[in-house]
Amino acid sequence: MGLDEDALEYHRSKPPGKIEIATTKPTNTQRDLSLAYSPGVAAPCEEIDKDPEKAFEYTAKGNLVGVVSDGSAVLGLGDIGPEAGKPVMEGKGVLFKRFADIDVFDVELDTDNAEAMIQTVEAMEPTFGGINLEDIAAPECFEVERRLSEKLDIPVFHDDQHGTAIISGAALVNAADIADKELADLEVVFSGAGASAIASAKFYVSLGVSKDNITMCDSSGIITEERATHEDLNRFKQEFARDIPEGDLADAMDGADVFVGLSVGGIVDQEMVRSMASDPIIFAMANPDPEIAYEDAKSARDDTVIMATGRSDYPNQVNNVLGFPFIFRGALDVRATEINEEMKVAAARALADLAKQDVPDEVVKAYGDQPLQFGPDYIIPKPLDPRVLFEITPAVAEAAIESGAARTEIDTEAYVEELEARLGKSREMMRVVLNKAKSNPQRVVLAEGHDEKMIRAAYQLVEQGIAEPILIGDADRIESTRRKFGLEFDPVVVDPETADVADYADRLYELRQRKGITRREADELIRDGNYLGSVMVEMGDADAMLTGLTHHYPSALRPPLQVIGTADDADYAAGVYMLTFKNRVIFCADTTVNQDPDTDVLEEVTRHTGELARRFNVEPRAAMLSYSNFGSVDNPGTKKIRRAVSRLQDDERVDFPVDGEMQADTAVVEDILQDTYEFSELDDPANVLVFPNLEAGNIGYKLLQRLGGAEAIGPMLVGMDKPVHVLQRGDEVKDIVNLAGVAVVDAQQE
Asked: Start and end of every Malic enzyme N-terminal domain (predicted)?
């Protein structure tokens, strides 16, 4: 399926939409229900009646934002109405929750009257801690925000106006620094005169740009005082009318230091870029196509062109998600009455400062190991940089306090710790790997290439630039499926029945002739996708392999074990699942391969699982599990674990803590580990759990997944000589894509 079809399926899958309400308190007993509702709920009601501020103490108001829209200016879709705009508002709620742990009610209003919207939102003030106005057409949006900001005692923020202004403002501060130009001296040209352009122009003035140096162009050309006199320009455009000759965008850009595009794609050419002042700053933010292509702008001249766009596939993406979640987080946490100019400037300045700091390795790895260093190609932080929450949010909160907008004060150091505790890294884990994969895609064989899910996954791998898939299977069947789902790509296909596979058969025979395989059997086996894929990887015609979607695990694993085998430093392969929870990540091994491991196997599995954890930027702490705690039971089963632990602790190659044997709760509960067994080598709960046998491992990870609410990624094979991963039967497309990403990163290390 194409992007549109995938998006429709994404939204319609049960439960429909993208957000839900979840309880935050126990509701398991009659007493719980009595506390949650009648009669216990009367107590907080009475307290709030005495002091309305207690609503922040006894209800979710302090962490609840209303995303309000009339659907009159939705994304690039225009006036599609409130119901059609609801998926966007839900999506906004997803971003609030994902990046700042803020809950959202989306509110779509069926009105085209600004006054009616203002009155409706005003009446809802008791419900919310803040209001995010979204996708409201100009010029009405200006009046709606102004009036509501005056009327309400909670923060009101129109992201379409101020989000782009704040993020691009941060970029402008750093771009001017790099170009060695003063903000006050910059000649700035705007293409576009809508809500975001006008708000950005005003915000740039707050940052230090001279209003007299801002030239704004709409579809009719430069907005001049002459035009303002004779044309019906709204008062917001009139505010930026200049006493200069009329002209078009090309005239405006001649000699300008900065171009800010908030209009339509393709309206700026290289000659216009060449007409600008030295070391020009170009923010071409129209989406999906910038006003001028990144490559065209950069190659238009020989000096430094500092370029930003709204796209994620180029440096310096101006992405509003760098702003609104963290601005609201800070505003809510100090119970601000508004989001004022001081708070917006603080956010922009903090973003600009963050870009100048040394970038952590985890962020570099998350973006494919590309260089991230302050300069023309890195003037604003990346959205997945976890420091954004910890740097921007406190700056906003402090600005609210200093400007008098806050109703409570915070201890900054303690507040940063609180912010760190709000969001875990579980949902970031695969992004780290997939972005690393995109930096250098590898050839991944999909051995069951005729399967519909494999073909759809192959399309996504190509579309996202994660891997170069090779589909093994019936070429006609693959093409038919591709056409059926409208997948616009030209996959690499190896059809075992029609392709020349003689060399692969020769190699299979060479490898297995003393293992019971005859020449005739080699010719037959090479038609099997698992054997063919394994030989392709072994011979270097592919870099990695995925299989198992339509096979039982043992039968899928057998060919790569026979053909590729284990690595030079390994005698055994093992299956590992990564389980991601909200606030922790755990690697479970062995869950798929070794039925009754001895000391040698346990030792090796632990070592390789620790190495795997580090590929996900997780520093391993390994616990070898049993029903015994540190010798409380003495029998052959516990002794083999203790021997493995002793060897690992003596092994210079193992530079992470390992201990055991220990029970599962000892391994993962900090109080037990530190109070009862304070002598343990583990200072913190384990994140690598090595099970004593396959039965325990398989049962354990599935219980954690199903009852613990963990997301399972895997199984990932460790110990193989070349990257091979075996899927579980029934895995979904996203599982295939994720595991392919893991395989690519494995291959990169090869």
From this structure: 16-149
**Tens-digit pLDDT profile for residues 76-108:** 788 999 999 999 999 999 999 988 999 999 999
Structure tokens at 200: 């950005």
**Domain end (from 377, 401, 423):** 423
d(CA 750, CA 748): 5
pLDDT of residue 353: 94
| Residue 523 DSSP SS3 | helix
Angle (CA) 181-186-190 rounded to 5° is: 135
CA distance 197 to 190: 7
CATH at 263: 3.40.50.720
DSSP three-state, residue 155: coil
Write a three-state SS string for 12-62.
Answer: HCCCCCCCCCCCCCCCCCHHHHHHHCCCCCHHHHHHHHHCHHHHHHHCHHH
Report d(CA 424, CA 441) in Å as an integer.
28
- Contacts for 326 with CB less than 8 Å, ≥ 6 apart: 99, 100, 347, 388, 389, 392, 393, 396
Nearest to 89, CA basis, from 64, 106, 72: 106
Indicate which CATH number applies to the domain containing 146.
3.40.50.10380
Active-site residue, 92 included: yes
Give the pLDDT score at 365. Answer: 66
Q: Quote the tokens at residue 231.
A: 């044309």
500 & 436 share domain: yes
Q: Residues 10, 18, 25, 37: which is the catalytic one?
A: 37
Is there a single domain that holds both residue 376 and residue 459?
Answer: no
Kindly report the number of other CB atoms within 10 A of residue 335's CB atom: 20
Burial label, 640 (beta-carbon count in 10 A; 0-12, 13-18, 19+): buried
Neighbours of 653 (CB within 10 A): 9
| 417-453 residue pLDDT tens | 778 666 544 445 676 788 788 889 999 999 999 998 8
Alpha-carbon separation of residue 598 from 303, 595, 608, 638, 649 (angstroms): 65, 10, 16, 11, 17
Question: Cα separations (Å) of 524 from 535, 542, 561?
Answer: 14, 21, 18
Helix/strand/coil for 416:
helix
Domain range holding 645?
574-719
Q: Domain with 594 in it: what CATH number? A: 3.40.50.10750
Task: Looking at the structure, tell me whether residues 701 and 637 fall in a common domain.
Answer: yes
Q: What are phi and psi of 258, to 5 degrees?
A: -135, 135
Q: State which amino acid sits at residue 62.
A: G
pLDDT in the model for residue 553: 82
Residue 727 lies in a domain: no
The parts of the chain modelled with pLDDT lower than 70 are 1, 358-362, 364-365, 369, 371, 420-429, 431
Distance CA 300, CA 309 (A): 16
- 221 forms beta bridges with 218
Residue 480 belongs to a domain with what CATH number?
A: 3.40.50.10950
- Cβ neighbours for 545, distance < 8 A, ≥ 6 positions apart: 444, 445, 447, 533, 534, 536, 537, 560, 722, 723, 724, 725, 743
Whether residue 387 is found in the same domain as residue 265: no
Q: Would residue 595 count as lying in a domain?
A: yes
Shared domain for 463 and 417, answered yes or no, is no
Largest CA distance in the chain: 96
pLDDT the model gives residue 1: 58
Q: How long a stretch of residues is the chain?
A: 750
Q: Do residues 346 and 368 both lie within one domain?
A: yes
* Three-state DSSP class for residue 133: strand
Q: Where are the alpha helices (DSSP H) in 616-732?
A: 636-650, 664-668, 670-671, 694-707
625 contacts 689 by C-beta, under 8 angstroms: yes
Which residue in the list 61, 86, 92, 382 is annotated as catalytic? 92
Residues with Cβ within 8 Å of 389's Cβ and at least 6 positions away in sequence, in order, are 99, 100, 326, 329, 419, 420, 422, 423
Q: Note if 37 is an active site residue.
A: yes
First to last CA, the chain: 32
